[in-house]
Design brief:
The longest helix is centred in the middle third of the chain and has 24 residues. Helix 11 crosses helix 12 and helix 15 crosses helix 16. The protein has about 350 residues and is an alpha/beta fold. It has 16 helices and nine strands. It binds coproporphyrinogen III. Coproporphyrinogen III (CP3) binds next to strand 3. Coproporphyrinogen III binds next to strand 3.
C-alpha cells in the first residue's frame, strides 16, 4: 500500500490515481435548498453571522455530508470575505446576494486596500476548518477555496453583480497599470488565504474564476492567466488544486498549462471529449448541468450514469455538477445523484 492510498478518495482521484469507485461532491452542496440549512441560518441571523461562527459554519458544512454521504466537505465561507478583510464594506442581502456599496473606482481606491494577515483577519475560516475536520470521517476530504484574482476584481469593481463586467473591463483595457496593481494585491491576499486554509486542514483547494469565461481566450491569456499563475506558484503544490471557470471550455487548455491538478468541465461539452483532450494531463470534475437536478430523481440518476459510462472508468474523474446546486433543487435529486456512483460501484458494467 502506498502512502497516498491513505488519502481520501477525492484527493486520490483529483491526482489521477486509481480509485475503487468514482468520488462525488457538489459545488454549493450546503445552502438554501436544504431545510436544515435554513434552520441554522435563522439562528445565526444571516449569512455573514453563520460564516463568522466556526461552530455554525462547521455544522452547515457537515449537513450535506451527513445527509448524502458525499466524498468532500466544502468549507462554509465565501469567496468575497477576503475583500472585507482588505477593508471593503460587504453585505449579503436576502434575495439579492452580495453587495459592496463602495466599489473600487480609481487608483487611489486600489492603493487604499489593506493587506491581510489571514491568521488574524480570517482566523474564523481556519477555526471553521478545524472544527469541521474534527466532525468529519477520515475518508471525507475537506475542501478549501478562494476566488481567482479576476473574479475577485470583478466583484470589487462592480459593487456586487459583475454582470457584463463593464467596470472591470474598462479598468483592464484603459487603465492597465491600476488593473495590474489591483491584481497584484489580490494575488498576495489570495495565495496567503489558501496557504492558511491548507495549514488549517484543507486537503484540496478550489480556485473559482466564475467570471473569467466572459473573456476571449486571447484576453484570458493576456490579462488573467499570469495572475492566476502567480497565485498557484505562490501556493505551491501542498494539495491538489482544482480550477473552475464558468463557461470556460475555451480556456481549459490554459488552465492545464497553468498547472492545475484538476479542472471543472463545462457541462455543454460531452465529458468524453474533455477526457479525450485533457484526461492524460489533469483530473476532470463534472459535468452534469446543474439544472438537470430539477428533474425527477430517476432522470437525475440516468444522467449521472450516462456521465460515468462516457468516462468509462478512466482515472481522474470526480462526478459533480458543472456549477453550483440551484436553490430550487429538491434534496432528493442530490441524493439520487450521489446514489448513482454507489450503485455503479456495486454493479460494475
Ligand atoms: O457549499 C458551498 O459551496 C458552501 C460555500 C460557498 C459559498 N459561496 C456559500 C454561499 C462557496 C464555495 C461559495 C463560492 C462563491 N461565492 C462563488 C464562486 C462559485 C460560484 O458559485 O461561481 C461566488 C461567485 C460567490 C459570491 C456569492 N456569494 C454570490 C454571487 C452569492 C449570492 C448568490 C447565491 O447563490 O446565493 C453569495 C452568497 C452565498 N454564498 C450563499 C451561500 C450558501 C447564499 C447566502 C444565503 O444563505 O443567503
Amino acid at each position: 500500500m502506498t502512502e497516498s492510498s491513505h488519502d481520501p478518495l477525492l484527493v486520490r482521484a483529483l491526482r489521477r490515481e486509481p480509485v475503487p469507485r468514482t468520488p462525488v461532491w457538489l459545488m454549493r452542496q450546503a445552502g438554501r435548498y436544504l431545510p436544515e440549512y435554513g434552520v441554522v441560518r435563522k439562528r445565526a441571523g444571516g449569512f455573514l453571522g453563520m460564516a463568522h461562527d466556526p461552530e455554525l459554519a462547521a455544522e452547515v458544512t457537515l449537513q450535506p455530508v451527513r445527509r448524502f454521504g458525499v466524498d468532500g466537505a466544502v468549507i462554509f465561507s465565501d469567496i468575497l470575505l477576503p475583500l472585507a478583510a482588505m477593508g471593503m464594506e460587504l453585505r449579503f442581502e436576502e434575495g439579492r446576494g452580495p453587495v459592496l456599496p463602495q466599489p473600487l473606482a480609481s487608483g487611489a481606491d486600489v492603493d487604499a486596500l489593506g493587506g491581510v494577515d489571514p491568521t488574524r483577519d480570517l482566523a474564523y475560516v481556519g477555526e471553521s476548518l478545524r472544527v469541521t475536520r474534527a466532525g468529519l470521517p477520515d475518508e471525507v476530504a475537506l475542501i478549501g477555496f478562494a476566488g481567482a484574482p479576476f473574479t475577485m476584481a470583478a466583484y470589487a469593481t462592480s459593487g456586487g453583480n459583475p454582470g457584463a463586467g463593464a467596470a472591470l473591463r474598462t479598468l483592464m483595457y484603459r487603465d492597465t497599470a491600476v488593473y495590474e496593481r489591483l491584481m497584484q494585491k489580490l494575488c498576495v491576499v489570495l495565495a496567503d488565504h489558501l496557504r492558511f486554509q491548507v495549514q488549517s486542514g484543507a486537503q484540496i483547494v478550489v480556485l473559482f474564476d466564475t467570471w473569467a469565461g466572459q473573456l476571449t481566450a486571447e484576453d484570458y491569456r493576456r490579462y488573467v492567466a499570469p495572475w492566476t499563475g502567480r497565485v498557484l506558484e505562490s501556493l505551491g503544490t501542498p494539495v491538489p488544486r482544482l480550477g473552475f471557470v464558468r463557461d470556460g471550455a475555451h480556456v481549459t487548455e490554459q488552465l492545464v498549462e497553468l498547472g492545475f491538478e484538476a479542472i471543472v468541465a463545462d457541462w455543454r461539452t460531452p465529458i468524453g471529449e474533455v477526457f479525450d483532450r485533457f484526461g492524460h494531463a489533469v483530473g476532470i470534475q463534472g459535468n452534469l448541468d446543474p439544472a438537470v437536478l430539477l428533474a425527477e430523481p430517476d432522470e437525475v440518476k440516468r444522467r449521472a450514469r450516462a456521465i460515468l459510462d462516457e468516462v468509462g472508468g478512466r482515472p481522474g474523474h470526480v462526478l459533480s455538477l458543472g456549477h453550483g446546486v440551484l436553490k430550487q433543487t429538491h434534496p432528493d435529486a442530490v441524493a439520487a445523484f450521489v446514489a448513482a456512483v454507489h450503485e455503479a460501484a456495486a454493479s460494475p458494467s
